[in-house]
Write a structure and sequence with these properties.
The complex is a heterodimer.
Chain A lengths: L10 E2 L11 H14 L9 H21 L7 E4 L2 H12 L5 E5 L4 H12 L3 E5 L9 H7 L4 E7 L11 H10 L3 E5 L18 E5 L11 E5 L39 H17 L1 H20 L4 E3 L11 E6 L4 H12 L1 E2 L1 E3 L4 H7 L6 E5 L6 H14 L7
Parallel strand pairs in A: 1-11, 3-4, 3-5, 5-6, 6-7
Antiparallel strand pairs in A: 2-8, 7-8, 9-10, 10-13, 12-13
Helix pairs in contact in A: 1-7, 2-7, 3-4, 8-11, 9-11
Chain B lengths: L5 E5 L3 H13 L5 E4 L10 E6 L3 H8 L7 E4 L1
Classes of the chains: A alpha/beta, B alpha+beta.
The complex binds pyridoxal-5'-phosphate.
Chain lengths: 394, 74
């Protein structure tokens, strides 16, 4: 088990915020970039600059393979999923447009949409069920003649609830509505195929299940759509330097300024790890850990679990509460007494907590990763039992 | 003996040139990345140089996979 700075064992269950540990190859790729490459990509023709460009291209190609996208240049890199979502939402929506979203969204979707609403965009927030599921019929009913965009999280960061993305994509496509998916919680842990799921815009974090470092993320943009999308930032791209207008092609239009090359070197190694292990293998391991934890919680007294009852309909995220103990107290106890690291509260998703009825205290959230072990789940169950005041089994 | 003539493929940006490079490596077509010659463009990017006889092979490999702006005789 990993150790903290005082050599006490720790159990890291905050993977829904950012994953830890990372595959050893991630750090090795960053060190390799720093020691042997170090140049600025796309800016000059010298060998170190070209090698830096090749590193970024390899990361793009690995992501394109993962998402079933046939041209890697359709992916623009950003510093996180939030930036990607901001490009997508404020880049496409104009006053008078109508946009549909769900009541399970993270603030990285909700806040840009609320801002755009104040600027004249019409917003419909479709309510989800108490376990966080979005009903496709409700989405269909919310469509108006001028609906421009449907934006939905692939899976909730609060309950792990997986949304019916392929069906939603099909509905959007049939009505000529653009479809944007927030894959922050699922890129690397659930299969994603941009064509089969009819996705026009896919925003992802690099630092969660793709095992890259923090400071990485990106946006896939369907062919041709980049012409309609305004960039958030403009500036130097290394291309078309003789012109003062922003390039209008992928990925340069959305990648102004020197990129996070060292981070993208690490992200590339993380994505290649995912491709080698296979998403299906990662998913089934995470599903087993989640099933084990849910089964253990079910027999404890004084525990309320949120989200779908079984692991098949959720990612490896479990939100729960202990009767009589606030989430923040519980997480402090878990950290200090048991070395279990998790996240209490609202998880940047107040709408989702309203939907499941846990606003404003929130929940205790455990997020498991491919690197967690059965024994860690069992130790955590013992810790939760002791916080809930239950007796240990004999 | 006739002197070898070269053509260059110019791309929207270095990302495209590097993607083309990767495709040509797989296809085993001899090529070289060189800075865009000043007399062609004032852009600071790179382009892909090949011998003239390979132009059609290269176009066939790149078509539908990576866009290029133009092909010029050096
Ligand atoms: C569902 C969801 N969307 C968006 C985000 C934002 O991701 P990032 O921190 O990479 O910007 C997160 C995580 O923080 C998330 O869980």
């Amino acid at each position: 088990m990993p150790l903290d700075q005082l050599n006490h064992p720790i159990i890291y269950f905050d993977n829904a915020a950012t994953s830890w540990p990372k595959p050893a190859a991630m750090m090795a790729a960053m060190i390799n970039y720093n020691e042997l490459i170090g140049g600025s990509p796309g800016r000059s023709g010298h060998q170190r600059s070209l090698d830096a460009g090749r590193v970024i291209l390899e990361t793009r190609e690995a992501l394109a393979e993962l998402f079933g996208c046939d041209d890697s240049l359709r992916i623009a890199f950003t510093k996180n999923a939030t930036e990607a979502l901001n490009i997508a939402l404020s880049g496409i929506l104009n006053p008078g447009d109508h946009v549909i979203t769900s009541s399970m969204e993270h603030n990285s979707v909700m806040r840009p949409l609320r801002y755009l609403e104040s600027q004249g965009v019409q917003l419909s927030v479709v309510s989800c069920s108490g376990d966080g599921r979005l009903d496709t019929e409700d989405v269909r009913a919310a469509i108006r003649p001028h609906t421009r965009l449907l934006v939905v999280t692939h899976a909730s960061n609060v309950t792990g609830t997986i949304q019916p993305i392929a069906e939603l994509g099909e509905i959007a496509g049939r009505h000529g509505i653009l479809f944007c998916v927030d894959a922050a919680q699922t890129a690397g842990s659930l299969p994603i195929h941009v064509d089969e799921m009819v996705i026009d815009l896919l925003a992802f974090s690099g630092h969660k299940s793709l095992f890259g470092p923090q400071g990485t993320g990106g946006l896939y943009i369907r062919e041709g759509l980049e012409k309609q999308l305004r960039p958030l930032m403009m500036g130097g791209t290394g291309s078309r330097s003789e012109f003062e207008g922003q390039p209008d092609f992928m990925p340069d239009k959305f990648e102004s300024g020197t990129p996070n090359t060292i981070g993208l070197a690490g992200l590339g190694a993380g994505v290649r790890f995912v491709l080698t292990e296979r998403v299906e293998t990662i998913r089934s391991k995470e599903e087993m850990l989640t099933t084990r934890f849910l089964a253990g919680l079910a027999v404890l007294p004084g525990i309320t679990v949120y989200g779908p009852p079984d692991a098949a309909n959720r990612t490896s995220v479990v939100s729960f509460n202990i009767t009589g103990v606030s989430p923040s107290e519980a997480s402090l106890e878990l950290d200090e007494r048991f070395g279990i690291l998790c996240r209490p509260g609202l998880h940047c998703a107040p709408a989702a907590h309203r939907t499941i009825g846990t606003f404003s205290q929130g929940t205790i959230r455990f997020g498991f990763s491919y690197f967690n072990k059965d024994e860690e789940i069992d130790l955590a169950l013992e810790a939760v039992r002791s916080l809930a005041g239950g007796d240990a089994p004999h | 003996m006739e002197e070898q003539r070269y053509v260059v493929f110019l791309f929207p940006s270095v990302s495209y040139a590097l993607k083309a490079e990767k495709i040509l490596k797989v296809a085993r077509i001899a090529h070289k990345l060189i800075p865009v010659p000043r007399h062609i463009s004032s852009d600071c990017g790179v382009c892909v140089r090949i011998t003239e006889d390979k132009q059609q092979d290269v176009e066939r490999e790149l078509l539908g996979k990576v866009e290029w702006d133009k092909v010029l005789l050096l």
